[in-house]
């Protein structure tokens, strides 16, 4: 079951393309969802991290590459609310006077 789930996420393939050697894709998908809902994955990852940390196998340095960090459109100066007001027509102050 773990190998089937790992295969799916490593390849990025659709569930329906899961190789037959892993069994029915619906069963694997349903098991993944059930384990996510009941907290099984959280428990597994917590235990693995705790063991790796105890063995000093984890480097807790965090690095963020600014190339992939994106701001939401509202953080980039987009208008926050309300309809856009139409531009008022401007007339030159030193233009010829209309008769």
TrEMBL record:
InterPro entries: IS402-like_dom, Transposase_6_like. Residues 84-93 have a biased composition (Polar residues). Pfam families: DUF4096. This is Transposase. Coiled coil: none annotated. The lineage of its organism: Bacteria, Bacillati, Actinomycetota, Actinomycetes, Kitasatosporales. Residues 1-44 form the Insertion element IS402-like domain. Residues 74-99 are annotated as: Disordered.
